[in-house]
Amino acid sequence: MNTIAAELTADAVLVEDALHLGLGDCTLRLRSNSVELLAGLRDYFGHVVVAPRDADLEVTAIEREAPDLARIRFNPGRILRQRRSSRIRWA
Hints:
Layout: H1 2-9, E1 19-23, E2 26-32, H2 35-44, E3 57-61, E4 79-81, E5 88-90
Parallel strand pairs: 2-3
Antiparallel strand pairs: 1-2, 4-5
């Protein structure tokens, strides 16, 4: 999994800011290499944004060109690319 993560992040440098979302008893911390992406997500998820605190889950969203997935070995699981947005997710 670390090889896949390294390939997908492409040495992206994360910004210092993070977005914290309160989802019931769970806190999710969202980090990114894009201030603009975090701002857009902060607006979208505004109703569940909470003050920074210890997180139960951490998600990293990398803004970049789509990677060449043909040369990455996936075991087990798969990576899916959404047609409309070209977003990539692990399944």
